[in-house]
Amino acid sequence: MRLGSIILFVALCSFTAYYIYEPIPEEIEEKWKLMLTNCFFRSLSHMADLSELLGLKDYMGVMYVITLAEKVVPVSDEHVKVTDENFDGVEVVLYQPKQQGDGGELRRAIIYLHGGGWCLGSSRMSPYDQLARELVTELDAVVLSVEYRLAPAHHFPVPYEDVYRVVKHFLQKGVLAQYSVDPGRIAVSGDSAGGNLAAAVSQQLLKEPGQQIQLKAQALIYPVLQALDLNTPSYQQNRDMPILPRTLMVRFWSEYFTSDKAFFRAMMANTHNNPESSSLLKFVDWSAFLPETYHREYNYSAPAVVQGVGGEAVGMDGPSRSLADPRASPLLVPDAALRSLPKAYIMTCEYDVLRDDGIMYVTRLRAAGVEVSHEHYDTGFHGALMFTVWPTDFLIGRRMTDNYIKWLKENL
């Protein structure tokens, strides 16, 4: 009996170790912590797949547990005043310094947009709440954290439109005066899908007729910037990396546009482009916009172009049309639309499927004459900036946060 128990125990330990262990690159710090963290994400993803297969709950509905697990109620403390506001019908969490500035001086402001693939995440998650408080105290800034509506309940362009309405509302002289914000020191920032929204808003705001107040800076943290080519070198190199494997990123894109599973399958095969979007592939030609060091053994081949992607129900009025919309894929705008953009901070990570999106945008912005600070982490992985709260607190997340705040302090 005792021998049987020992064998069962050893077998259980062996299976657990096999399930947890992943072949993570040696360069990454705290590898075992990342394996353990990702074990939770993978387990939840498997449960979500099973739930959707059985018709119990859709995939993103199950994955939303990640958001719920880290939800907090942001409250004021001795240094930061926190209020829930409504800007043009959209919920925002507003963080302000409690200490009045010397002589009534106006403050910086950061409009922050959370990540989560447009389907998950919340400004009321503990990592975002902690980051907002740090921005307030370190920069003596007003921070506006936007609670935009999420897909798949609200497909594109709803999340973008929510964010754009908030930015437009905030950039009114009367509103800025109400919060003692300097109209010349306002930035928009976001991570991952939030970086996508920040880049899109920065571009579209320049086209707004009569817009008097413009952004001074955009800070994009491992942003997702294009949906046309989902087979760039970083998508291939990091297809199975923890936190954001290629399958999950493709699913996020698909769910952002539609609930049609045929479109997801087409995106997975990189055969989702139509004649309209294919004309814009020149803007995501990584053989031209990526430094050669990132080409490695990968050879560029333009994604296939297919008529009627996603079935008759999708057509050109659905996600196929959204593919070519720069509000969804900010990398698709022509060079002329980039020239007047505010200075940019772009963070990229080596072990991230989105690495090449960010680097291509850096290349194109610089070519257009925009001032860009590019911070690349050779040992970085997607989502690391948000891993600063126990038990998923990583040293690299702390370094990223410090460097990000340092840039804002020097450039805003």
Low-confidence stretches: 6-15, 310-316
Name the strands of the widest sheet in spatial order: 1-2-4-3-5-6-7-8
Largest sheet: 8 strands, mixed
Oligomer: single chain
Q: What is the total tally of β strands?
A: 10
Give the overall shape, derived from the CA principal axes: globular
Order of helices and strands: HHHHEEEHEHHEHEHHHHHHEHEEEH
The value of Rg in angstroms is 22 Å
* Percentage of residues in DSSP E strands: 15-25%
Structural class: alpha/beta
Percentage of residues in helical conformation: 40-55%
**What is the terminal-to-terminal distance?**
69 Å
- The total count of helices amounts to 16
- pLDDT averaged over residues: 91
Summarize this structure briefly:
The protein is an alpha/beta fold and about 400 residues long.
Structure description:
By secondary structure, the chain is an alpha/beta fold. The protein is built from 16 helices and ten strands. The chain has helices at residues 2-20, 31-53, 59-63, 65-69, 126-139, 158-170, 173-178, 193-205, 233-237, 246-257, 261-268, 275-278, 286-289, 319-322, 355-367, 395-411, and strands spanning 80-87, 90-97, 107-113, 141-146, 181-191, 217-221, 343-351, 372-381, 388-389, 392-393. The strands form two sheets. Strands 1-2-4-3-5-6-7-8 form an eight-stranded mixed β-sheet, with helices on both faces. Strands 9-10 form a two-stranded antiparallel ribbon. Helix 5 runs parallel beside helix 16 (395-411) and helix 10 (246-257) crosses helix 11 (261-268). The chain is globular. The relative contact order is 0.12.
